[in-house]
Design goal:
Blueprint: E1 7-16, H1 20-29, E2 35-38, E3 55-56, H2 65-75, H3 82-102, E4 120-121, E5 131-132, H4 138-151, E6 156-159, E7 162-169, E8 175-182, E9 187-197, H5 218-225, E10 230-231, E11 236-243, H6 255-259, E12 263-265, H7 273-276, H8 285-299, E13 304-307, H9 313-319, H10 321-329, E14 339-348, E15 351-353, E16 365-367, E17 372-373, H11 385-401, H12 424-441, H13 448-471, H14 476-497, H15 513-516, E18 524-525
Parallel strand pairs: 1-2, 1-9, 2-6, 9-16, 15-17
Antiparallel strand pairs: 3-5, 4-5, 7-8, 8-9, 10-15, 10-18, 11-14, 12-13, 13-14
Helix pairs in contact: 1-4, 1-11, 2-3, 3-11, 5-14, 12-13, 12-14, 13-14
Length: 532
């Protein structure tokens, strides 16, 4: 599109991403500042909606902050920022009270011995029942409630016709909004005083994921292009139990299924977790995912079994109505048959490095939710701490934004885009190649030789994609792929630099961190590190 037809508009607070984090921030900022929320329709199928299990928070009188903090630190395998963990945990109860005030339909506990009005379940890594949930579809319930309130708020403008492909900066390298493409493929510049990324993680750089429309690190790389620091990219969590169905769409089998007594069995009938960890099926996700991966290799099977039939028909239908109904549609009655499950890319523990207010290293650029790395998760995320993090940091970021106003300097001129055309099939082929490389060499178990191969193959792929990106007219699919390829290269770089096995980064060529004697350290990278 010629530069003369570029559409530019002015905004106060620009939020990119409309999952739980983005909507929560918008609702808290509105009233003190005007909010523009760029929320494509695909956000309704993002990670927030598929968060089945619930939200971890200290709500029961039998629970306490120290216990939740301790469990999180153990799951994070020595790499959590304890200050961030305690901050998140202590803000949990008030965040849940806010959701209740909005009308989120959490499942009530009607038993006569209940000591809290809502049912609390337990999931992997937690030493107590502290997961509040809306049946087995918590993400959907929270998202729908927040979206309803945002759509009716006079200070929130929702733009569902735009997709962000890059960020704007002024001469002082302060963030000044975003470059977007509208539904006709035309460029629009949304100039903003403050910009908040809530774009999700990077599980989309892998072949098998737990979400039908996973993010591929687009927000992380948009921030990195402005100089933001990225942290802990090597820690990509694979959820242990995704429904195995090669011919159907991804579907997560919630951690709560194991929390209520589900048992993992190899295809030859062995309950293998009992031998590996005293917590058995409720061990942290990195341990369970590696165990499943090992069993699949031992038996040569493409899956293991998750069996809940012993819980009984009534309990299964009561606790897991969504999972039960979905599996029935796929020809599987979980009250009578075990569920075939396989690990799948689920959650990025790394991302844009932020402080407790969501602030990045770039002035007036914030990141919240899965796109951010707050230090809460360390080397492995504990179940149901993710929605908690979305809520807590959206609220703290909103409080920060309420006290300031962004700069009014104009952004620097954008580079004139190319005019070429890239065939859709080429973009699809490149993305498939990217996912195959990452799934083969940079997944649950990595080795030095595989990481070296991945680095080489991604470098070659990057050159092809870059040439197309720089010559082609603006294209959302190609822009997403260009972000994804560079994020994958940085992920491999982070994995190669970590010379220990810790949490989600398991490399048999490196000793466990308990044997190295090295102090725990986060990995920190910038985009320029790809060219060092």
């Amino acid at each position: 599109m010629p530069p003369s037809t570029l559409v530019r508009s002015e905004h106060d607070v620009l939020v990119i991403g409309g999952g739980v984090a983005g909507l929560t921030l918008a609702l808290h900022v509105a009233g003190t500042r005007r909010v523009t929320l760029v929320r494509p329709a695909s956000d309704d199928q993002g990670a927030s909606r598929w968060a089945q299990g619930g939200i971890a928070a200290v709500l029961s009188p039998q629970d306490d902050f120290d216990a939740h903090v301790a469990d999180t630190l153990v799951a994070g395998d020595g790499l959590c920022d304890e200050r961030a963990v305690r901050f998140t945990v202590e803000q949990g109860p008030s965040a849940i009270e806010w959701l209740l005030s909005l009308g989120v339909p959490f499942t009530r506990d009607t038993s006569p011995t209940a000591n809290y009005p809502y049912h609390l379940t337990r999931e992997g890594g937690h030493g107590a029942r502290r997961i509040i949930h809306a049946e087995d579809a918590t993400g959907r319930a929270v998202l729908d409630t927040l979206k309803h309130h945002a759509q009716t708020h006079p200070d929130i403008t929702i733009r569902d016709d735009l997709v962000a492909i890059g960020l704007l900066a002024d001469a002082q390298q302060r963030c000044r909004g975003a470059r977007c493409l509208d539904s006709r493929g035309q460029l629009q510049e949304l100039v903003a005083g403050d910009t908040v990324l809530a774009t999700g993680g990077a599980s989309g750089i892998y072949r098998h994921t737990t979400s039908p429309h996973p993010a591929s690190g687009e927000g992380m790389m948009m921030a990195a292009e402005l100089g933001a620091e990225l942290m802990n990219l090597e820690f990509q969590q694979f959820h242990p139990t995704c429904l195995y169905d090669p011919d159907g769409p991804p579907f997560l089998i919630s951690e709560a299924v194991r929390g209520e007594g589900g048992r993992l069995l190899s295809t030859d009938g062995r309950r293998f977790m009992l031998e590996l960890d005293e917590r058995a099926e409720l061990a942290p996700r990195d341990i369970v995912a590696r165990a499943i991966d090992a069993e699949m290799q031992r038996t040569g099977s493409p899956h293991v079994w998750l069996d809940v039939t012993h819980l009984g028909d009534e309990a299964i239908r009561h606790h897991f109505p969504t999972i039960h109904a979905h599996c029935l549609k796929r020809g599987l009655d979980i009250t009578r048959q075990p569920i075939p499950v396989v690990p799948a890319a689920h959650y990025s523990c790394g991302g844009v490095a932020t402080d407790l207010d969501g602030g990045s290293s770039v002035p007036h650029l914030y990141a919240i939710g899965e796109v951010a790395c707050t230090g809460l998760h360390g080397a492995n995320r504990m179940a149901s701490n993710s929605l908690l993090e979305c809520l807590v940091y959206a609220r703290s970021c909103a409080a920060k934004l309420a006290t300031q106003r962004g700069p009014t300097t104009p952004p620097t001129a954008s580079t004139q885009p190319g005019a070429g055309v890239v065939e859709v099939r080429h973009v699809q082929q490149w993305r498939t190649a990217l996912r195959d490389i990452m799934s083969r060499y940079v997944a649950i178990v990595r080795r030095d030789a595989g990481l070296d191969t991945a680095s080489h193959e991604l470098s070659e792929l990057s050159r092809e994609v870059q040439a197309a990106f720089e010559s082609a007219a603006p294209n959302t699919a190609l822009a997403s792929l260009w972000h994804a390829v560079r994020l994958a290269r940085l992920t491999v770089l982070a994995a190669r630099q970590r010379r220990e096995s810790r949490g989600l980064h398991f490399n048999p060529d490196c000793p466990p961190h308990t044997e190295t004697g090295l102090a725990p350290r986060p990995s920190r990278l910038h985009l320029d590190d790809l060219f060092a």
